[in-house]
Amino acid sequence: MRIAIDAMGGDHAPQAIVEGTLQAARAHADVTLVLVGDEEAIKRCMGSERPSNVEIVHTTEVIAADDEPVRSVRRKKDASMVVAARMVKEGQADGFVSAGNTGALMAAGLLVVGRIPSIERPALASIWPTFGGNAMLVLDVGANMDADPVHLFQYGLMANAFSKEVLGLPKPRIGLLNVGAEPGKGDKLRKEAFELLQNGPFHFVGNIEAREAMHDKCDVLVADGFTGNNMLKLIEGFGLGLFDKLKDVFLAGPLTKLAALILKPGLRQFKKTFDYSEYGGAPLLGIDGAVIKAHGSSNARAFEMAIEQARRFIAGRVLEQINQDVQKQ
Fold first, then answer.
1. Listed residue (178, 167, 182, 192) closest to 223, CA to CA
2. Which GO biological process categories is it annotated with (predicted)?
3. Do domains 1-116+286-317 and 120-284 have the same CATH topology?
């Protein structure tokens, strides 16, 4: 198994990317990790220790966070992200991981790697923690702003295969994000998607309201990209604001500081539950390769977990399973 790594993408590249790659390489000696990027910069971050299963492919260009996605992928042929995607397309790697520009990653997935032929639209999935302590896969969170009912149905198929093979769930519960829990709720898109999902080859649990989504009501939450992306940003913003407010409350005076000291172990565990670094990256499902988007601010641990997700994706033969499930429909 070979996984290409975009060493130049992300807020803390290449240092955090290289460190995370080295940690993953030590954990999985049977996986070859190929760091793609500026060779000198990579070697400076690596130091004298280089595991035998880590390789370097030198590139001369970088896609920046503010670059226009499609134009940069088409024009920057020697960018680390584009070269990593091309390695997957040409069979030199089984998948690739990047913490770089999200739009460019989706463009590279579509324009360079290509779609699975039977999938009409790819979906960007995100793994969210829930108050029940389990992880929930949400898709689409931004790959496509517009969707047809069949796209939402295919999201359910792809997420079902991914959840079984990567998240280890024998019978994932598939839910549809909607304005009400009762059948027949929602607009034309949601009503038609409900009918398709209800008759799908997976465990569909019906409509899920946004207020119930974080309470372990389903393992997979299906949404169109516009709705999913807005929900994702709302929860991220709320989470950041909540922890800031808690900090203000606990530092308000001597008694609250004492309370904070007593509650510190529990608060640390609570924060860890919602720490993105423990959940790896966001898979771009529907692309003909294991393409994983790591968080832009990934530290070494977060990037190591994103690589682990790519490894499980490939080892679990998720692409083959998606193809089989779609062809049966």
1. 178
2. fatty acid biosynthetic process; phospholipid biosynthetic process
3. yes
| Token pair in block for residue 251 | 């530092």
Q: Treating both helix axes as pointing N-terminal to C-terminal, what angle do 15-27 and 39-46 enclose, rounded to 10 degrees? A: 60
Fold that domain 120-284 belongs to in CATH: Isopropylmalate Dehydrogenase (3.40.718)
| Closest by Cα among 75, 2, 26, 3 to 300 | 26
For residue 306, what pLDDT is reported?
93
Task: Assign 3-class secondary structure to 255-267.
Answer: HHHHHHHHHHHHH
Tokens of 151: 């796209």
- 6, 99 in Cβ contact below 8 A? yes
φ and ψ of 130, to 5 deg: -125, 165
- CA distance linking residue 218 with residue 203, whole number of Å: 10
Could you please state the CATH topology (level 3) that the domain comprising 1-116+286-317 is classified under: Isopropylmalate Dehydrogenase (3.40.718)
Tell me the C-alpha distance between 7 and 21, whole Å.
Answer: 9
Take residue 316 and report the two structure tokens written for it: 């679990």
Domains of the chain by residue range: 1-116+286-317, 120-284
DSSP SS3 for 145: coil
SS3 label, residue 238: helix
d(C-alpha 140, C-alpha 137), whole Å: 10
Strands 282-285 vs 123-129: parallel, antiparallel or unpaired: antiparallel
Kindly give the interhelix angle for 15-27 and 300-315, rounded to the nearest 10 degrees. 50
Is pLDDT at 108 greater than 80 in this prediction?
yes
Query: For 131-168, how does the pLDDT look when each residue is reduced to its tens digit (9 = 90+)?
Result: 877 889 999 888 888 899 999 999 999 999 999 988 88
| Total number of residues shown for the chain | 329
| 3-class SS of residue 136 | strand
Give residue-wise pLDDT tens across range 28-72: 999 999 999 999 999 999 987 789 999 999 999 999 988 999 999
Q: Is the pTM of this model over 0.90?
A: no
The count of other CB atoms within 10 Å of the CB of residue 53 is 17
The dihedrals phi and psi of 65, each to the nearest 5 degrees, come to -60, -30
